Task: inverse folding
C-alpha cells in the first residue's frame, strides 16, 4: 500500500498579493531549499517560511 502525503506551507503575503489574498503559499525555488524542507530539523527548516521580496511573485 502506498500513501501519498503533501503539505502546504503559508506565510504573510507579498505586497503584490496582499490586496487579493491574506496569506500566500511558500514557494521553494532552489534545490537546496527542498533538501532543507524535506530533511532538516524544524527549528532550521522553518526559516523557509518567509514572505518573498517585493516583486516576487507578480500578478498578471
Result:
Amino acid at each position: 500500500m502506498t500513501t501519498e502525503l503533501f503539505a502546504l506551507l503559508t506565510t504573510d503575503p507579498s505586497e503584490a498579493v496582499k490586496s487579493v489574498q491574506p496569506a500566500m503559499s511558500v514557494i521553494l525555488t532552489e534545490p537546496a531549499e527542498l533538501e532543507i524542507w524535506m530533511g532538516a530539523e524544524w527549528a532550521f527548516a522553518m526559516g523557509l517560511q518567509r514572505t518573498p521580496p517585493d516583486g516576487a511573485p507578480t500578478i498578471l
